[in-house]
Write a structure and sequence with these properties.
The protein has about 280 residues and is an alpha/beta fold. The protein folds into two domains: about 130 residues; about 120 residues, Glutaredoxin (3-Layer(aba) Sandwich). Helix content is about 50%, strand content about 10%. The longest helix has about 35 residues.
């Protein structure tokens, strides 16, 4: 039996093992009481609010338990059956969960990864699975910048260490990100105005085709690289998956400031602090 046929049965079997009816009954009962209180009094009492918060905590705990049990079942199945497209996507999702801090069996995921075909391992999903399992030392203000390998438009591997002795303004971005493109004009202005003082390097988290399309569409003329494993890459070291993320790096490779999100003037402000 192929994995794509097996998983629906796995979920059904697991669902039969987990009886969430008592929780739902409690939730419905409490909800009814809350509605009556609102209708009668126009507000909830402090005790009712406390009860609601306790119920929400119970629901969160139950949801986490169910998700963990499903993941364990998935990993168990993935270790023994033929791996198709669906299974590769599920393995990718489990590895992503690990990168976000969820406590799953990392070794089991690696064992399943070893069962992938060479074609699957060389796919974007396969590369990201390994990258998601990679751990990065957390980067904070005052930390050394990770010297990670990126790809430029010529297909060459590039590293930030090439710019040792120069101020750097890093821009982590993605094609689907509106605020990222709002920042493009100011990035260009900073690149020109601070030439010789600050080097702007944009680092895309997109796949190759989307990155090249966005580069041409928005006229990005400054240093423009791509993280080969996208969101699974070094951006995670900064403790955020949000984009755009801007990082100012000193000539000796130390992180001086990090800003998540964009508003007009923030890039010029960061560049001016380079002294």
């Amino acid at each position: 039996m192929k994995i794509d046929e097996l998983f629906p049965h796995t979920f059904k079997a697991l669902a039969r093992q987990i009886d969430s009816r008592p929780l739902w009954q409690q939730c419905q009962s409490s909800q009814s009481a809350f509605c009556q209180a609102v209708v009668s009094n126009g507000y909830l009492t402090e005790a009712q609010m406390d009860s609601l918060e306790a119920l929400a905590d119970q629901a969160d705990a139950a949801s986490s338990e169910i998700a963990d049990r499903i993941s364990q079942q998935e990993l168990k199945a993935l270790e023994t059956v033929e791996i198709g497209r669906f299974a590769l996507n599920r393995l990718h999702g489990l590895a992503l969960s690990v990168s976000l801090g969820r406590e799953l069996d990392r070794e089991a995921i690696l064992r399943v990864y070893d069962r992938l075909s060479d074609e699957q391992k060389s796919s974007r999903e396969g590369k990201e699975i390994l990258a998601f399992l990679q751990t990065f030392e957390k980067v904070e203000i005052g930390s050394p910048i990770p010297d990670y390998g990126f790809i430029d438009l010529d297909g060459k591997t590039r590293r930030l260490s090439e710019f040792q002795g120069k101020w750097l303004l890093l821009d982590f971005w993605q094609f689907s990100c509106g605020p990222c493109f709002m920042s493009v004009p100011e990035l260009g202005e900073v690149s020109r105005e601070f030439e010789g003082r600050v080097t702007v390097i944009s680092i895309s988290l997109d796949a190759d085709a989307s990155w090249r399309m966005a580069t041409e569409q928005h006229g990005i003329f400054w240093d423009n690289w791509r993280d080969p494993v996208g969101n699974a890459g070094v951006l995670r070291a900064y403790g955020t998956g949000a984009i755009p993320t801007f990082v100012l790096v000193s000539p000796d490779g130390i992180v001086k400031s990090v800003h998540v999100g964009y508003h007009a003037g923030i890039l010029r402000e960061m560049a001016r602090s380079a002294d």
